């Protein structure tokens, strides 16, 4: 797998896994909405035979301004995720995939979590001697302050069993190691990279802007499927019900011209391989289970979080502008020669 540099930046997409979820995860989208847009969705995004939509869990690695930056860290291995069966106790080759393209986890400078959800923070940590330690020991982890407050044990979501588990094994250890930086408003990472709040999916959801000759924006979970474009805004799957605080107005760095910016969604799958390949390892919960936010009656160990410093409704009859926008996004994250896709071992 070759890596391609364009202008002053190299971007690599590292795929952790693919799986399917039922279309009912979009409760406000009628079944006809999927089938009426089959020309857009099938086969890459939706399987009408099983009534399931395809989802990818992946990270982006950006090399720019002398920095190596990992954007979102997937699910991680050996995680207890009873609230999300497809992500429970995975065993993927994510770290080997990073190494295969020359990314040394010890040399990563910055980790960006666009928001605190289980499929975006998992490889923040790894298991070592029966404890969770930072996967990237020399990196600073940039976490939205609003999400840190919301998902911490004392926050509104801290006592929800699934969210508590995620915070305890993937966020709290990096805070205790002194590597977590909680940010708010706009946050400049380097001359070419900056973070901007985009609350809604979670109170602290954010996007990462890149401007190094080819403008691009890494949108996290602002969208999960092209079906979400073109309709009135409604919650995406597993969206927080908390009302986000309005962002403070102030001086902000100008955005790249939107028509020139390449959008990189966090959940768009590449065209699927033949059925049965590039899937979670046989025998894991991810390959056996299908669910959408199942609740469990379990409380994580009580721990105190250290103090911190410093959309979309799918519908039948999607109009043409929405289709055109998604084709632009999909070309940027899947078929563009500027992006390298790395698939770890999955079976």
Structure notes:
The structure is a single chain. This protein is of the alpha/beta class and 347 residues long. It has a single domain (5-239, 257-297, 309-342), classed as Metallo-beta-lactamase, Chain A, CATH 3.60.15.10. The protein has 8 helices and 16 strands. It has helices spanning 31-35, 38-41, 94-100, 118-121, 145-151, 161-176, 285-288, 320-335, and strands spanning 5-6, 9-22, 46-47, 52-64, 67-71, 110-112, 125-128, 131-134, 140-144, 180-183, 187-190, 193-197, 206-210, 216-218, 262-264, 339-342. The strands form 3 sheets. Strands 1, 2, 3, 4, 5, 6, 9, 10 and 16 form a 9-stranded mixed β-sheet that branches. A hairpin with a 2-residue loop joins strand 4 and strand 5 (67-71). The longest helix is centred in the middle third of the chain and has 16 residues, at 161-176. The chain starts with a strand and ends in a 5-residue tail after the last strand.
């Amino acid at each position: 797998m070759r890596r391609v540099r364009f202008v002053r930046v190299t971007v690599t997409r590292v795929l952790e896994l693919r799986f399917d979820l039922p279309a009912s995860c979009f409760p406000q989208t009628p079944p006809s909405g999927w089938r009426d847009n089959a020309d857009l969705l099938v086969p890459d995004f939706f399987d009408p035979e099983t009534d399931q939509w395809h989802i990818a869990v992946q990270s982006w690695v950006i090399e720019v301004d002398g920095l190596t930056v990992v954007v979102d860290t997937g699910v991680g291995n050996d995680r207890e995720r009873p609230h999300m069966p497809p992500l429970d106790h995975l065993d993927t080759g994510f770290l080997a995939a990073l190494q295969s393209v020359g990314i040394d986890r010890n040399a990563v400078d910055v980790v960006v979590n666009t928001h605190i959800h289980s499929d975006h923070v998992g490889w923040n940590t790894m298991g070592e001697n029966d404890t969770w330690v930072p996967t990237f020991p020399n990196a600073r982890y940039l976490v939205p302050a609003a999400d840190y407050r919301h998902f911490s044990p004392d926050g509104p979501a801290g006592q929800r069993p699934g969210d508590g588990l995620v915070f305890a094994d993937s966020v709290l250890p990096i805070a205790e190691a002194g590597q977590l930086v909680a940010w708010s408003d706009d946050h400049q990472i380097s001359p070419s990279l900056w973070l901007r709040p985009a609350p809604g999916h979670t109170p602290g959801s954010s996007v990462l802007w890149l401007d190094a000759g080819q403008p691009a924006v890494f949108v996290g979970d602002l969208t999960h499927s092209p079906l979400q474009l073109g309709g009135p805004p409604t919650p995406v799957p597993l969206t927080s019900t908390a009302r986000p605080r309005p962002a403070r107005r102030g001086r902000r760095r100008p955005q790249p011209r939107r028509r020139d910016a390449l959008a990189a969604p966090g959940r768009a799958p590449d065209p699927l391989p033949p059925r049965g390949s590039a899937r979670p390892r046989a025998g894991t919960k991810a390959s056996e289970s299908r669910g959408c936010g199942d609740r469990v009656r379990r409380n994580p160990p009580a721990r105190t979080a250290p103090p911190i410093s410093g959309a979309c409704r799918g519908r039948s009859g999607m109009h043409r502008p929405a289709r055109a926008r998604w084709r632009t996004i999909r070309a940027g994250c899947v078929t563009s020669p500027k992006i390298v896709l790395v698939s770890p071992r999955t079976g």
